Amino acid sequence: MSRTLPNAREYFKKKKELESKGKIVSVDEAASVKKEIRRYRILKFYKILAVLVVLGIIGTAAYFYLQNREYKEYEVQTDVKREDTVTTQYMEFQGKILKYNKDGVSYCDAQNNTLWAYTYEMQSPTVDICENMAAVGDIKGTKLFIFDSDGNQGEINTNFPIQKFRVSELGTVAVVLEDGDTTWINIYDKSGGEALAKNKTSLDISGYPVDIDISNDNTRVIVSYLQLDGGALKTHVAFYNFGSVGQNYTDKLVSGKIVDGVLFPRTAFIDNEHAVAFGDDRFLIFEGKQIPELLAEVPLEEGEQLVDIFYDKTHIGIVVTSADNASKYSLRIYNPQGNLLLTQKLATDFDRIKIYDDQLLMFYQKQFSVFNLKGVEKFTGTMTRNILDIIPKNKGSQFIVVDSSNTRQIKLK
Question: What stretches pass through the bilayer (predicted)?
C-alpha cells in the first residue's frame, strides 16, 4: 500500500497554488520549500521533546518528594462512634470496612454508613479476602458465603465440616473438609452448588493440612501438610492442578517439596505465577503457571525465629526476632525471585504490618507508623485509642483508622 508523506502533500499543495496563479515552481524553489518544511518539523519535534523532558523531571521530583516526605502530625477529618457488639471484628475490604460476627456481616464506609448487610448464624466465623472478593466461613461448620463490594454473590454448603478455606480474586473457593481420618480438598464456584473439583487425601499418607491457598486462575492449590515419620516431623509442600494438566497426574498432585524437621504454617500465591511457603526457619518460593517448581529457598539467620509475614504481588515481607541487642526485630523485604530489597531494624513491638504500594503501615496499641520501602520513616504518631486496623485512602497521606470504639479519617501533615 502506497501513501503520501505529509511534507509531500504540503509541497504539491503549494505547487498547485502557485500554478493556479500562473507561476511555475522550479526545482530549486521546490527544494527550498521542502527544506523549510523539514526545518519547521525538526524545531517542532525538539520543542515537544523539551517539554516532555521538563514534565518528566517535574514528575520524577514530585514522586521522590512524596515518597520521602516526612509528616509530623495529623488532623482528624471525620470521627464517628460505632455501636457494635464486643465480638465484632473488622477487616479492610476494597478501601472500606468489613465488619463480621456470629450473626452476620456488613460493609461500611469511613462514616460508618452501611453499604450492605447480610445475616447468618455461625459459631466460628472466619474471613478470607482476595482483591475484590471476600469469603465468610464457619470453621467446624458447613456454610460459606461469598461477597464483593455490591453484596452477597453466593452460598456454599459443604458435606463435611470446614477446616480451612481460601478465596481467589474470581470468587472461587478452595476448602479443606474434615471427614474423620480423611480430608477433602474441594473447589467451589462462588455461586455454590456441587464442588467443581474434589480431591481425597488421608492423614496417614498425606499428613495433616496446616494451610492452603488457591491461585488467581483457580487451577492450582498449594497445601502445607504436616507429617510424622517415626516420630520425626516433616512438611510436604504440595501443589495440585485441577485443570487439564492435573488430569495426567495421580490425585492431581503435580509437584511439591518435602522438608525435614521444619513446620510451614503459612502458604500463599502472591501472584498467578509465584507461591510462597513460610516456615519456622526459612521460606520457599515456587514458580510456574501449571507445574510449580522450587525457585528459591531463603533461610533465616542462625537464632532467628519467624514472627510475622506480609506480602503483595511484587513483595514478600517477613519479620524475625533480631539476633543483636540493638533492636527487637528485623524486617526484611524480598522480590518474587527471593532477592533482598530492604532490611530494617525494629526497636518496638507491633500488632500488625501491612504493605500498600510503596508504603509500610505498622501499628501497635495506640501508635501508628508509616515507612516507605527504602526504610525511611515518614510518620509516627499516637492515636486516641487502641488501633484495630489502618486503611489507606487513595492519597498517600489519608487513612481510615478503626480503633476500639470509633472510626476516624485522618490526614497526615
Answer: 45-66
Long-range Cβ contact pairs of 46-52 (< 8 A, separation 24 or more): none
Asked whether 390 and 407 are in contact (CB, 8 A), the reply is: no
3-state secondary structure of 13: helix
How far apart CA 99 and CA 85 sit, in angstroms, is 10
Residue-wise pLDDT tens digits, 245-291: 999 999 999 999 999 999 999 999 999 999 999 999 999 999 999 99
Supply the Cα-derived Rg of the chain in whole angstroms: 29
Which of 195, 197, 254, 259 lies closest to 224 in space, CA to CA?
A: 259
- The secondary structure of residue 200, as a DSSP letter, is E
How far apart, in whole angstroms, are the C-alpha atoms of residue 161 and residue 42?
73
Q: Do 399 and 392 meet the contact criterion of CB atoms below 8 Å apart?
A: yes
Q: Which are the contacts of 11, defined by CB distance < 8 A and separation ≥ 6?
A: 30, 33, 34, 37
Phi, psi torsion values for 244, nearest 5 degrees: -65, -35
pTM beyond 0.90: the answer is no
